[in-house]
Amino acid sequence: MHFDTLTPPEQRVLGCLIEKRFTTPEQYPLTLNALRLACNQSTNRDPVVDYDEETVREAAQRLSKYGLARLASGHTSRATKYRHLAEEALGLGREQLAVLSVLILRGAQTPGELKARTERMVDWDSLAAVELVLSELIERDYAERLERRPGQKEERFTHLFGGPTAEAGGSRIGTGGPTAEAGGSRMGIGGPSTGAAAAVAPPTAAQMPSAAGATGPVGSAPEVGTEVMERLDALERRVEQLAQTLEQVLGG
């Protein structure tokens, strides 16, 4: 079974379930509200979306039908919670799932970006270990290598859960709001495919000018240094932690 045409909401829900299992295990499985907040985070997401509760619920239910997720009852709460089943359904381990979740949640990435952005989930020995995982995902048809953009040195990689990419540049377009009918058939899953109105994605770190103000060919964007990228990611993680703390205080 190959999940190559998941809709954007389905991709976002799956990516969030994988990510939160590793980064906030004390809050996992996720309630519907927690899953909605995870999908709509303004940090560690590209693009940022604004899904309503019904969109998230429907996406989670469809993932359950596909064998990628299931309902789970909390130990101290009667609230419905969700967990992923990606290990069993996809046959992937922690390292592969960590890389895949970042590709799903943040769009095309270089190996260096993936290493920095999965460090909360995986303790990598080297960049070569990340590249090995990417090779494994490509072999399983879960990811693909993109052509280099003008002015870029590192290769970028993207996931294939929405099907093959139409072009090698730009971050993956995301959606917000309720799902709508989309053309094409669902391969290896069954049932009609659904999609949502696309929204233009904000620029990723790799598309932003570097701190040093380096320039490249017309129409290209110089890459951000690894040190700057790591500092940005650290700030994003801090903002996310503060947002979660605020949510818990208000909810209490």
Please state the structural category: alpha+beta
Q: How many extended strands? A: 9
- Strand arrangement within the widest β-sheet reads 1-3-2
Contiguous uncertain segments of 5+ residues = 167-223
Q: With helices defined by DSSP (H or I, 4 residues minimum), what is the helix count?
A: 8
Order of helices and strands: HEHHEEHHHHEEEEEEH
In this structure, how is the largest beta sheet organized?
A: 3 strands, antiparallel
Strand fraction equals: 5-15%
- How much is the radius of gyration in Å? 18 Å
User: Share of helix among residues?
Assistant: 40-55%
Q: Please, what is the average pLDDT?
A: 78
Shape: globular
User: What is the distance, rounded to the nearest whole angstrom, between the alpha carbons of the first and last residues?
Assistant: 43 Å
Structure, explained:
With 252 residues, the chain is α+β, with helices and mostly antiparallel strands. It contains eight helices and nine strands. The protein has a three-stranded antiparallel sheet with strand order 1-3-2. Helix 1 packs across helix 2, helix 6 (111-117) packs across helix 7 (127-139) and helix 6 packs parallel to helix 8 (226-251). The longest helix has 26 residues, at 226-251. The termini are far apart.
